[in-house]
Amino acid sequence: MNYEEKEFDNQKVNLQTWKKIIKTVFTNRKSVILLFTFVILLGMLEAITPLLNRYAIDVFFEGKDYSTLTPYIIFNVIVSLLFGLSVWGFIYQAGKIEVETNYILRKQSFETLQRLPFSYFDKTPQGWIMARMTSDSRRLANIISWGLVDLLWGLIMMIAILVTMFVLEWRLALIITAALPLMIVISIYFRTKILKGYRKARKINSLVTGSFNESFMGAKTTKSLAIEEENYQEFISKTQELKQASVKAILFSAIFSPIMLMISYVVIGFIMVRGTNMLLVSALTLGTLYAFIDYATRFFEPIMQIARILAQFQQAQASAERVVQLIETKSELVDSPEVIEQYGDIFTPKYENWEPIQGDVEFKNVTFNYVDNETVLDNFSLKIPSGTSVALVGQTGSGKTTIINLLSRFYEPISGDILIDGKSYKERSIHWLHKRLGYVLQTPHLFSGNVMENIRYGRLDATDEEVIEAAKAIGADEFISKMDQGYYSEVGEGGNKISIGQKQLISFARAVLADPRILILDEATSSIDSESEKIIQHATDTLLKGRTSFIVAHRLSTIVHSDLILVLKEGKIVELGSHKELLSKKGAYFDLYKKQFLNEQMDKAVHSI
Ligand SMILES: Nc1ncnc2c1ncn2[C@@H]1O[C@H](COP(=O)(O)OP(=O)(O)OP(=O)(O)O)[C@@H](O)[C@H]1O
User: Fold this and answer.
1) Complex prediction ipTM
2) Is 400 in the pocket of ligand 1 (CB under 6 A)?
């Protein structure tokens, strides 16, 4: 059972969750009060209308007395105006509440996401987060605003009609009231069935969407493995299941309304028979009989409405639980109250208290694991003076990225400490560190927009001249100038209009602009031609100059000038020194270098054939 399905199974009403959502809605107290006022007014007016008609029938048509015609017309106009006012008012206020609730839920989710550490995004599927931020928030906002309106309107109207009917003629009122329990039972039965059907359909739908997604995302792999037929069959069987579940729910929906209508017509029939008898012995006026028939039709409509809304609330509960869960997710990595007091938090940093950084880094007896009992780093120690360039090499899984993750405080050591300029990094805020740290990713992410904007993400207040200067320093100016519109050329979604090497240069220029004291460079694994390699090498040298830097190296040729090379194996340093020193040792580094050198020579030989 996956993340998504597990949470659909909660059938009980979760009052705690709804309380939190309702509290969000009440942030907008004025709109809520206005909304309630308009809805109550509308419910009352619905109960008054049949009374007006009753008066007209009894006084004007039956009694032929027209003395009150003018005030009657004036009263009717006032009622119509009030109708108009209340309909306008509740549509406006409910719409406003819907938009604002959606906004607040998304804002709160977004704020939580900003505070959450990297490990959260490691564990939580991106699609799950996106669904909370979009469809769930939207559904909740919708049901909360319009659902509450319908619920309240239905209840008010039913109460008002019930009271009026008993005041007018209790014997006829009893006939209508007698049908109420039957209608409620039928409504609950059908609504539960419909809800179950749709819930099942939604569950299957999320599987279908997932399978859809996987097929397209992995289109290349699917084709290369020639498994289109299997994927197609799986997709067809899931969509068939979806169709069956949906049709069942639609069938129940289709039966529900006619049954309710039939019962209401039977009730109207009873009222007609009983009412006519009473009319014949003058125990009832024609106007009152008319009013009762009108009330009988109006009375049952809200029952269907209320049943529908309650079912929708039940359906929306899964969304509510997930949104609240996201908003309330506590970060495993937080600054202590003392640190927040001094440095501020991510949204209100106290820059005035932030000390500058030198760039000395020390790992002190650091032990770390991602999963209990699977130690990745064991008592790891390392002291790096400011301005040193450190290269991390080692086989896959040796712990290079883990060291970087810890240094970036995406994770924290289980024991031991990491010191920056001689002070534990926990004594400063996470935001302080992230502002001082540059991280150039292996596959840099570019945002939709032009080159200028993308480089400027390094420092948002940089001028155009500073952006161009950074690009020149890194050697990116040449290819940018050759683009259609130079620095104003669009890079496409995720930078898909430019090559990987060019994306890297842009991300290097970003880092130059940000000018961090500590820089992490996760070197790209993809092989590039020797001309681009030269450009990237030059860019790397420029970028690292004068900074404390950590390079996760995949191609050893790029790190020959590093001050310090660490060779890692199973989370431990097995060798350390400069390129020259390590080669002369003829140990692990020498073996790695030899292997890679031979591979490169082989590649070149193959390409030259
Ligand atoms: N998020 C994670 N959850 C659980 N285990 C992890 C996680 N990330 C890494 N590991 C494990 O930690 C160990 C060290 O991984 P790490 O990513 O640091 O290696 P690496 O040297 O950077 O490898 P590569 O060169 O392939 O990137 C590996 O055994 C890996 O399986």
Assistant:
1) 0.95
2) yes
